[in-house]
Amino acid sequence: MVKNPYFDNILVVSFFILYMFGLVFVFSATSVPSLLTDKDPFALVKKEVAWIVVGILAMVGAYLTPIEFWKKVAYPLTAFTVFLLVIVLIFPAEVKGISVKRWIDLGFIRFQPSELAKLSVVLYLAYILHRKERDREFLSSWKGLFTVLSVPALITFLILIQPHKGAALFISLLVFFVLFSSRIPLGKVLLFPILTFPAIGYFILTSDYAVKRITALLNPIENRSGISYQVFQSILSFVKGGLTGEGIGGGTQKLKYLPEIHTDYIYALIGEELGFVGAVFLIAVFLVILFRGLKISLELDDTFSQVLGVGITYLIVLQGLFHMAVNTSLLPPTGFTLPFVSYGGSSLLIMSISAGILLRLSKEPKMTIYKRSEL
């Protein structure tokens, strides 16, 4: 076994590029609109700086934490996540005067349990597949599949009835990709999306709000002054940006044309101000994380570490792709933040912890050539 005493430098650079994008474009998105309403133009960027500092400290803390710790807390953390998802249904938070069953309001901070659920699901799958790795018969059986999928299915259901259909769909896809990369037979892996997607589809099709969002996606031009307003304005951001963009701070879509531009639509702002070049560069950063994360994970000599690394890599990259797909009108508006870039605490904190774990994995013992040949 070969142990790297440090960490993957390329991953570190990639994460800090995303942090810097977040700092620059949260300021760009919020400063001028705040001035126009006689508010402090630095108010939100100050909070973002604070969250980035907290995020970096969390990333360093996760990097310094031995992987054995995550093995020990995998089940307790998953149970705690389920508890929070139940609590949020019973005691919803009030956001902008509306009761919302997605947040836990602690007074000084609002926390979204569905963000923690993404990491918890990955930890749960990593631990249970690690425990059962030598029991090939168990992993190939229906009983084993039910054991593996029961907790992710419960978490998905609790998020679905909040309702947060986008997050439920995301976790379903995340579980599928993690299991697809495991040793469970493909035919049985397909069972999870087969069972969960119809349920998610039912909740979507029976929700007028969700149906309107799908309609908005299908007819962005025709309904641009109504239900397709956000979709149309997001598309317009990229059109205005052209090849090289209007320059940092030069975008106009943030001037009350595109709502929630500092959170759900920050990629559209990047497309407007940095153009096609900037938008593609950001995609390239996530592809680098995907390549490095998978390479690091597949070279590890421990099943728990392998599955954990693959799952965290998918978690970061898949959420980035979801956000970009919404912003480019490939998916209906679903409220996905861009990892490390969008304004907000819950997502930034969980993504930073995930990044720290991935960096820790990059210094874990690697398989020797001899051992790799045996697998």
Give the H and E element order: HHHEEEEHHHHHHHHHHHH
What is the makeup of the main sheet?
A: 2 strands, antiparallel
Main sheet strand line-up? 1-2
Distance between the termini: 15 Å
Low-confidence stretches at least 5 residues in length (pLDDT < 50)? Answer: 368-375
Report mean pLDDT, rounded to a whole number: 84
Rg estimate, integer Å: 21 Å
Strand content range? under 5%
* Number of helical stretches of at least 4 residues: 15
Give the tally of β-strands.
4
Write the layout of secondary structure elements.
Layout (H helix, E strand, L loop, with lengths): L8 H28 L6 H22 L2 H24 L2 E3 L2 E3 L3 E2 L4 E2 L1 H19 L4 H5 L1 H19 L4 H16 L5 H4 L1 H15 L2 H11 L10 H13 L24 H33 L4 H25 L18 H16 L7 H6 L1
Antiparallel strand pairs: 1-2, 3-4
Helix pairs in contact: 1-2, 1-12, 2-14, 3-4, 3-6, 4-6, 4-7, 4-13, 4-14, 6-7, 6-9, 7-9, 7-13, 11-12, 12-13, 13-14
How would you sum up this structure, described in words?
With 375 residues, the chain is an all-alpha fold. The chain has one domain (9-374). The protein has helices spanning 9-36, 43-64, 67-90, 113-131, 136-140, 142-160, 165-180, 186-189, 191-205, 208-218, 229-241, 266-298, 303-327, 346-361, 369-374; strands spanning 93-95, 98-100, 104-105, 110-111. A two-stranded antiparallel sheet has the order 1-2. The protein has a two-stranded antiparallel ribbon with strand order 3-4. Helix 13 crosses helix 14. The longest helix has 33 residues, at 266-298. Residues 368-375 have low confidence and may be disordered.
